[in-house]
Amino acid sequence: MLTSKQAKINQEKYGYNELAEGKKKSTARIFLEQFEDFLVIILIIAAIVSGFLGDAESSVVIFVVITINAILGTVQTVKAEQSLKSLKQLSAPEAKVIRDGVMIQIPSREVTVGDEVVLEAGDCVPADGRLLDVASLKADESALTGESLSVEKSLEEAPAGAALGDQTNRVFSGSFVTYGRGTFEVTAIGMDTEVGKIARLLKTTSEKKTPLQMNLDDFGKKLSIIILVFCGILFAVNVLRGGSVADAFLFAVALAVAAIPEALSSIVTIVLSFGTQKMAKEHAIIRKLQAVEGLGSVSIICSDKTGTLTQNKMTVEDYYVDGRRIPAGDIDLSVCNEEKLLIFSMLCNDSVNADGQEIGDPTETALINVGSRLGADAGEIRKRFPRQSEIPFDSDRKLMSTQHRIDGTELIIVKGAVDVLLGRMSGIRTGETVREITEDDRLEIERQNMEFSRDGLRVLAFAYKEIERARDLTLEEEDGLVFLGLISMMDPPREESKSAVSECKAAGIKPIMITGDHKVTAAAIARKIGILRDDSEACEGAVIEDMSDKELQEFVEKISVYARVSPEHKIRIVRAWQEKGNIVAMTGDGVNDAPALKQADIGVAMGITGSEVSKDAASMVLTDDNFATIIKAVENGRNIYQNIKNSIQFLLSGNFGAILAVLYASVAGLPVPFAPVHLLFINLLTDSLPAIALGLEPHTKNVMQEKPRPMDESILTRKYLLSIGTEGFCIGIMTMAAFYIGYASGGSALASTMAFGTLCTSRLVHGFNCKSARPVLFTDRFFNNIYLIGAFVIGLLLITGVLMVPGLHGIFKVVTLDLGQLLTVYGLALLNLPVIQWMKKIRS
Fold it and tell me: Exactly one of 304, 361, 589, 687 is catalytic; which is it?
């Protein structure tokens, strides 16, 4: 033990007992990062040049669009971080240490190397250390190892190189005591603990971009270069034809602004923001916008078992009494021996469940909870039959005994491991009678125990013995016992896990369990929920320890369950799937899951039971710890990706129509069909609203019947480009038809006005074409998006106002149209709808 003076010296030497927190980005830094996109940089350059050449309108429009996008991205990122902070528990845990020969209570951050810490049931372990004294001590280390059962502690030295869960003479920060008491000497604090090592491992793990991020980055660069080259050629043609350099440049910039979908980033951000709001209502906080879309692309979900697929709560599954296996739901307390087994399991038990707070070993609290469900209160039973003497459980005997007076008879109740108790039995109770136990009885009990074990269940045997009078119990009393029954228990799967796994498989996603628990237990849970079909698909982490990365890549396809794995194993498994071209999601709640959560393409942490380290490493946090919420996220992600594709198709096909019109006019020697302000008006107002509305298209469950798209699949597939090309060609033809009609009857000014009106209205109408790859005309899907209808009405009012209100003609460089000319504009624009719908029908 330390003196106060020694403790102060050690604190100065080793620092405080806390994890170093990573430096958070400032809001200003997050805002500036929004301008790193290649498309945005090109537009900023165009805006600056336009300003120098006197075209303030273009500069203002461009800066407004990219600033709105930056603000949206910043707000969403900051909001997600604030949501996460609200999940954090602010209470500072305390620790009991012996200093100057006296036990005192101090904040755990003040615990230092060399301190002697006292542990009791319910205490959190504040640091890593070597045990000095134990009395039936058990610790729950599931946050570190993934093993749901408490670990029995002893003073016996663990062999060198033993796994964390097998180092029974040590305790670790982040675990908590479930049973007994003990003291330990602190050997590591803060970042030097096992938790700290995992936190340090996080810093060396790189985060992955989602498929959408990579696709949009690549797509934006290629599109910008193509458009800039085209605008450069158009600029040269206009200058060679005798136009002024300034006018030619301004038009080239205006066309570039119109052709480059600079609203795309804003629209994607807005659509993903709405997606995160939808997810928040469904109990998920999205830390990174693109995680919504990324989840929709996953082909592998690597899931932790404890607390993720299971309830992280031991539960009684079966009784074995009177020679019968009885499911917990069928226990009948009117049957003598079933009632006896329940009462005995509550009396030979140290756990407490007061006001919903469970204190004690999880296996013992499970015995109390099954009684509560059946209407038997442990507190009342213990008052009726108080404990008169006891021999506490210890890991050497694997037994616990208590003495009680029940119905006028002094009884010793004994519980423990089946193999140990069987050797101490002399009788067996069947019905109301007790008879001598036979070899056949022993074999039947062993057979039942094996059956429970194969199902991944933990088994306790219960026996009793009548004595003449109350006395202090001795070890000799634990012989000559009467067998009463067995109770099996497990950490059961969450109710929704089985259906969620089934949905995963239907959607072409392979679910994989990765856990620190034992192989038998993990395999049993995996079989129950449908992850495991054959026992050959399960292995322990030691199997992959010495495999090369290439060998592991070949091995992972055969395995669905990994048991007894370390944090390093989890990262290697995730990376092996990624290197095979898969998009990997990793779910988990423990500190041991955090590095793999960060390595995965999409990390999903549990918000209630999850450690803060795992939440900080994840892309998404589930506030209800419900595995099924992940499947909702997959469905949302796939729908959002499809909606974003529809928005992109809308923007590109409309832009392509405008480019074709300009290109045709240039080649045919016609006047330029649009003024720069026309293109800016279309881009800022009549394009953005329908594109956003398409991003909010109602979701459909059909997407869950599709297979995940390949990671390297571009947005611009051949089929997709063909749709953009044909639809843009149709819009371009209608636009030039309006231009020729106006040119024939009123010259270039009227031609330009009618072309502008037709292009603008065509793009509004085209929003309905882009709702689906299949025809939607005359179906219930045509009018199911109120946002798209609203965008169409607002856009139509705006363009009609520009064309018909004389006060706006000078600003927008248009001339007055008569009713016939206006109806011609509307008619040509509307004609795009049946034509493109017919083309979709042919393609589908």
Answer: 304
Check: CB of residue 516 under 8 Å from CB of residue 592.
yes
The pLDDT of residue 173? 86
- Per the rule left: phi > 0, alpha: psi between -120 and 50, beta: everything else, 362 is alpha
Fill in the DSSP letter of residue 475. Answer: G
Residues whose CB falls within 8 Å of the CB of residue 60, separated by 6 or more in sequence, listed in order? none
CA distance 145 to 783: 53
To the query of whether residue 491 is one of the catalytic residues in this protein, the response is no
Per-residue model confidence (pLDDT) at position 90: 29
Residue-by-residue DSSP string for 19-49:
PPPPPPPPHHHHHHHTT-SHHHHHHHHHHHH
Q: Tokens standing for 723?
A: 């749709």
Distance between CA atoms of residues 670 and 129, nearest Å: 85
The per-residue pLDDT for 684 is 66
Could you tell me if 264 and 651 are in contact, meaning their C-beta atoms sit under 8 angstroms apart?
Answer: yes
Residue 389, CA distances (Å) to 172, 401, 455 in order = 33, 8, 35
Q: What is the pLDDT of residue 793?
A: 95
Is residue 699 within 8 Å of 636, Cβ to Cβ? yes
Q: How far apart are CA 209 and CA 294, in angstroms?
A: 9
- SS3 assignment, position 493: strand
pLDDT score at 428: 96
Q: Cα separation of 256 and 137, whole Å?
A: 72
- Any idea how long the chain is? 844
Rounded to an integer, what is the distance from CA 621 to the centroid of its chain?
Answer: 6
List C-alpha distances in Å: 317 to 24, 242, 327, 452, 492.
46, 89, 6, 10, 9
**Backbone angles phi and psi of 286, in degrees to 5:** -90, 120
Quick one: pLDDT at residue 171? 92
Regions of the chain where pLDDT drops below 50 = 80, 83-92
User: End-to-end distance of the chain based on CA atoms, in angstroms?
Assistant: 79
